[in-house]
């Protein structure tokens, strides 16, 4: 075993500490035995007993207590005192013997007659002599031979404990010599063979300050991580991380920690202790990784000030630099005073993403969407539209961007482009997306253009696609009570396990759940935990009790995550149901407005019969470069055209 001097001293101090506690425990028992003997004659305690107690390692205070319990009859000569000194008896004990009159002094003293007979009753003149400790409780009188027997038995017990401890240390050392072999097995891919050796060593309880313990913890974490048993790897990995950045495997352990956080959401609050670590002497790449991880850690816990503090330390050369800027911008959005800085960070994130080799498309899209939404919220609609149009049409975020674009045109009263956006969203490319308010917006635009027929058609489509299936959604929410049933209903919807025939939950309401980012994250974690559970079951004989413990933890975590996912599904479906009720109210209001406005328009036209109405034919237009080329829609959608439609529909409202 290789350890440095500091660790050897630490290990020795821990072992001597354990032996010291055993020795002190035995000493206390010996004091209780000695002090429980009444002072019946001078032979109750002699110089030999004092020497024996010294050799057993009893403290001076304990021996002095035994002397007090022996009474006043014990007298030691100057020669006896010399023998005590020669035997190594503490000078404090010898001085106490002389001070209490148990030993002859070199100074002439007036003789003191020892009291004889029973002690007088307490009449207030002074305290009565204290009885020997434990004498009243035990009421036991031991002869010299019995006392020596007791001391001998305690000494044998102590020696047995020392021997057992020495044998245990030998066994630990023997197992430690197997650790290099475990390391070779790990390197060759025999993860479970290596894990078996590491576990056996750790279970023996080696010194936690030793290099061997540290190596075994890292080896076990690596073996389980390599086998896909991530929850099992988490605990030994945490021990390695908490050992500090000055230790050998900290960087590798930190890399595994990042993966555990990503794959199973392993982010225990204890990781906040890493803020106390000094990493100033490490290379810049690692400092960037470390600061980004802690920044994201605090962001996920909602502690935005600390998140911003760590994210701002990520250098512009770091691979995580664009992500750090984006997350920092999101964190700053919640602070009104930092809104301007948030916009700058989104812009910086986009530039950093563009400058990455090959481009960071993920950050580009997130950055553009963030800027578009912020400018939409503050009423800069044209700027918002500029950023929405940056989202590529062949990405998953394009549908959301197209829908939000339609809303933006609507609120800025650009009805031609709004109707073009609606036309885009009706294409087959967006069939799987859930946009119920699209028909409400479309009906409102047609109402404002006095095209009452098309307005009614949009409301009818809303009724058919969303309101007609709603009672089944409402029934599903009422009858489904267990979170696990909600989760099962979604994840098995398209699988072979799904019941045949009409399903309890209409398919149209599955889409908003599947589009939820939180659902996707939980789904990934649950799939990882399920794979981990299977890996554990396949290796349970190798892992033994540890494996059963980890398996129980994985089963519990899996159940918890499924419950969490079921609650998320329930909340999402309840939100959908509530929003449909709100949109239904708006649809009813629009229907009333259509009837009312139709009457008003009819009256206006009767009053203005001489005004000629122009042709009311509407077409869809395709944008070519910066110009508009009219092209009538012929029932087909082309993927490179769907975001460029505009309507030529003119207002049919009668002039006032």
Describe this structure in words.
- 32% of the residues are buried.
- By secondary structure, the protein is mainly alpha-helical.
- A three-stranded antiparallel beta sheet has the order 2-1-3.
- α10 (211-226) packs antiparallel against α11 (230-242), α16 packs antiparallel against α17 (361-377) and α26 runs antiparallel to α27 (540-607).
- It has helices at residues 5-35, 47-55, 60-69, 78-86, 91-99, 135-138, 144-176, 179-187, 191-203, 211-226, 230-242, 250-264, 284-300, 304-311, 321-333, 339-355, 361-377, 381-388, 398-411, 415-425, 437-448, 452-467, 470-479, 483-491, 511-514, 517-538, 540-607; strands at 620-624, 627-630, 645-647.
- The chain is 64% helix and 2% strand.
- The chain has 27 helices and three strands.
Topology (SSEs and partners):
Elements: H1 5-35, H2 47-55, H3 60-69, H4 78-86, H5 91-99, H6 135-138, H7 144-176, H8 179-187, H9 191-203, H10 211-226, H11 230-242, H12 250-264, H13 284-300, H14 304-311, H15 321-333, H16 339-355, H17 361-377, H18 381-388, H19 398-411, H20 415-425, H21 437-448, H22 452-467, H23 470-479, H24 483-491, H25 511-514, H26 517-538, H27 540-607, E1 620-624, E2 627-630, E3 645-647
Antiparallel strand pairs: 1-2, 1-3
